[in-house]
Amino acid sequence: MCGISGFIDFKGDSGKEILELMSDQLEHRGPDGAGTRLLVLPDCTIGLAHRRLSIIDLTETGTQPMAFDGVLVTFNGEIYNYKEIRHDLQVLGHTFVGGSDTEVILHAYKQWGINCIERFIGMFSFVMYDEKQGKLFCVRDRAGVKPFYYYRTNDLFLFASELKAFHRHPGFDRELDHSAVAAFMQFGNIPGTHCVFKNCNKLSPGHYGVFDLKSRTLELHKYWDVYDYYNKPKLGIDWEEAKTETENLLVSAASYRMIADVPVGVFLSGGYDSACLTALLQKNTSEKLKTYTIAVSDLGLNEAPFAKEVAELLGTDHHELECSSQEALTLIDQLPFYYDEPFA
User: Fold this and answer.
1) Which residue, among 233, 214, 57, has the nearest Cα to 130 in the 3D structure?
2) What is the pLDDT of residues 3-51, one digit of tens each?
3) Taken in order 202, 204, 205, 206, is the CA torsion positive or negative?
4) How confident is the model at residue 297 (pLDDT cuts 50, 70, 90)?
5) Catalytic choice (2, 116, 195, 200)
6) Which of 49-63, 102-116, 147-161, 204-218 has the lowest mean pLDDT?
7) 57: left (phi > 0), else alpha (psi -120 to 50), else beta?
8) Is 2 marked active-site?
9) What is the mean pLDDT of residues 116-143?
10) Centroid of chain to Cα 254
11) pLDDT at 315
12) Euclidean distance between CA atoms 288 and 275, whole angstroms
């Protein structure tokens, strides 16, 4: 999962201790390692922090924040097609130290600029500081799978994977945004880019922000919009071709998500979606796919018997875990810490 956090402080009051406190709040997102980088510039102090959950390149060459040729990045997520992009970059003369997708982001940026994100297939949020341009780039994936929060006042810019990291910075003002609270009362959650605190926002999916240190301005840009695809002309193919093309797309998407340097499994509910995914993945490998199901005591809600039937049919290495209502109740006290905002 990983977690990122950091700041731009134009007063220069933020140091390494504060940066580490922000990062430590996200330890649950990345228990495998932690890293920080502090840059003390004439006009401001920049801090980037990373909590690591090792999925790709488990060696020290995957440690973050990572630097290359005047560019520094802290990255949460996965670039599924990083091997193809890495190959393209090698053809163009790039050489790599390790095997991480993080390093590919840095080299891709040096080759194509911020437009490199249009080549990325994956789930990601990252912050990248370009020393030569004096700009900080904040990027979120197309569907908004990975979270990204930011807080902004005249002298301070904070960012993090979760709001709780902001509470460890003394410059963070916890004033409630009453319009966001009203939205919660209406919808049961705080929607869109809004946050429960004033001066806080979520970066929209398919967007990136550019913070210019010289002008102290933040410009938001949309790089992807699902409606562009909805509005494209329909393909001139027949029913059989459409089925084949759909299966090819599903196989490609599922296979990308199996790329990892650690074991990968599938949550199998017994419904159509997870059964289809499991079938596609198991079809193309002789190794038994690990599948997991959570069983519950309520017979009306328990899908474990159906999942077991699917697993037996497909021949997966199936694991069934039971969760009682009492176990669920014991988790309630922990939920506010992880949710950060009111959630019905």
Assistant:
1) 214
2) 999 999 999 999 999 999 999 999 999 988 899 999 999 999 999 999 9
3) negative
4) confident
5) 2
6) 49-63
7) left
8) yes
9) 97
10) 17
11) 94
12) 15
Rounded to whole angstroms, the Cα distance separating 41 from 46 reads 8
pTM over 0.90: yes
pLDDT surpasses 70 at 56: no
Q: What is the pLDDT of residue 181?
A: 96
Handedness of CA 314, 318, 321, 322 (dihedral sign): positive
Burial class (CB in 10 A: 0-12, 13-18, 19+), 85: buried
CB 177 within 8 A of CB 37: no
Q: How crowded is residue 225: how many other Cβ atoms within 10 Å of its Cβ?
A: 13
Please give the order of strands across the beta sheet that includes 149-152.
33-40, 45-52, 3-9, 156-160, 149-152, 200-202
Q: How far apart are CA 85 and CA 121, in angstroms?
A: 10
Cβ-contact 86, 96 below 8 angstroms? yes
Q: Exposed e or buried b for every residue in 159-195, given b needs 16+ CB within 10 A? A: bbbbbbbbbbbebbeeeebeebeebbeeeeebeeebb
The confidence score (pLDDT) of residue 124 equals 98
Q: Judging by beta carbons within 10 Å of its beta carbon (0-12, 13-18, 19+), is residue 73 exposed, middle or buried?
A: buried
Query: Cα separation of 141 and 218, whole Å?
Result: 18
Residue whose pair of structure tokens reads 């995957």 in the numeric block: 62
Show the beta-strand stretches assigned E in the chain: 3-9, 33-40, 45-52, 66-68, 71-79, 122-130, 135-140, 149-152, 156-160, 200-202, 207-212, 217-222, 265-267, 290-296, 317-323
Q: What tokens appear for 20 in the block?
A: 């580490």
Task: Give tens-digit pLDDT for 219-266.
Answer: 999 999 999 989 999 889 999 999 999 999 999 999 898 887 888 899
Question: How many CB atoms lie under 10 A from the CB of residue 276?
Answer: 14
Tokens 């197309």 belong to: 142
Q: Which residue has the tokens 């163009």?
A: 92
